[in-house]
C-alpha cells in the first residue's frame, strides 16, 4: 500500500495589529523594478533601502514591516530578487482628532549579494547597477543592512559593511531570523555585531515571523521620513 506523504508546513508569519507611536504605514504598493537609473520611479520623496546577503530575509522583512503579505516575493531559494524593486509607502500620523499628516516615501528591495551562482569572475560584492544605485540615488536617506542572526561572522557581510561605510551611506544594521536563536546565541551574536558593525544607532534584532523589532525599526525609519519632510 502506498504511504501518504507527510506535508511539512513551514511556519508562516502572523500579521500584526501593533503599531508604533508616530507615523504608521497605511498603504504599500509595488511600483517599479529597475536595473538602470532611467527605470527608477520619478519623484523626490525619501527612500529607505534594504540590502543583505541572498536569503538573509530582506523580502520577508519588508512584508513584515508593511504588514503586507506578498508585497515582496519571498523564496527559500537564494537569489530570488534580481532587480531593484521600488514600493510606494504612505505613512499617516494623527496629530489630533481632526488633523493628520501623511508622508509618501519609497521603500527599496535590493538584490541579495553573495549568491554562489552569480558570475564568479565578478570580483565585486554586488553588480555595478546596485553600486550605482547606492552611490548615486539622491533620495536614499537610510540603508538597512541585514545580517543573518545565525551567521554574523561571514566575511562577505563585513566586506559589504566596510564598502558602505567608506561610501558614507547612512546605515542601520538589522539582525534577521532572530527567532532561530536561543537567548545565549542571541546575546553572543548581538555582541559580535556591535563590535564588528559599529554604527551611530544600535543594531536592531528582527524576526519577520514574529515581528520582533518591528516597532524599533519603524521608529528608526520614521526619524528619516519625518526629518526628510522638513
Ligand atoms: N524563521 C525565520 N525565517 C525567515 C525569516 N525571514 C525570512 N525567513 C525565511 O528565509 C528565506 C529567505 O527569505 P527572503 O525574505 O526571500 O530572503 P531575501 O533576502 O529576500 O532573499 P533573496 O531575494 O533571494 O536575496 C525564506 O524561506 C523565509 O521564509 C525570519 O525572521 N525567521
Ligand atoms: Mg528577496
Automatic annotation (TrEMBL):
<dbReference type="InterPro" id="IPR027417">
    <property type="entry name" value="P-loop_NTPase"/>
</dbReference>
<dbReference type="InterPro" id="IPR030393">
    <property type="entry name" value="G_ENGB_dom"/>
</dbReference>
<comment type="similarity">
    <text>Belongs to the TRAFAC class TrmE-Era-EngA-EngB-Septin-like GTPase superfamily. EngB GTPase family.</text>
</comment>
<keyword id="KW-0547">Nucleotide-binding</keyword>
<protein>
    <recommendedName>
        <fullName>Probable GTP-binding protein EngB</fullName>
    </recommendedName>
</protein>
<keyword id="KW-0132">Cell division</keyword>
<feature type="domain" description="EngB-type G">
    <location>
        <begin position="44"/>
        <end position="227"/>
    </location>
</feature>
<keyword id="KW-0131">Cell cycle</keyword>
<keyword id="KW-0479">Metal-binding</keyword>
<dbReference type="GO" id="GO:0046872">
    <property type="term" value="F:metal ion binding"/>
</dbReference>
<dbReference type="InterPro" id="IPR006073">
    <property type="entry name" value="GTP-bd"/>
</dbReference>
<keyword id="KW-0342">GTP-binding</keyword>
<dbReference type="Pfam" id="PF01926">
    <property type="entry name" value="MMR_HSR1"/>
</dbReference>
<comment type="function">
    <text>Necessary for normal cell division and for the maintenance of normal septation.</text>
</comment>
<dbReference type="GO" id="GO:0000917">
    <property type="term" value="P:division septum assembly"/>
</dbReference>
<dbReference type="InterPro" id="IPR019987">
    <property type="entry name" value="GTP-bd_ribosome_bio_YsxC"/>
</dbReference>
<feature type="region of interest" description="Disordered">
    <location>
        <begin position="1"/>
        <end position="21"/>
    </location>
</feature>
<dbReference type="GO" id="GO:0005525">
    <property type="term" value="F:GTP binding"/>
</dbReference>
<keyword id="KW-0460">Magnesium</keyword>
<keyword id="KW-0717">Septation</keyword>
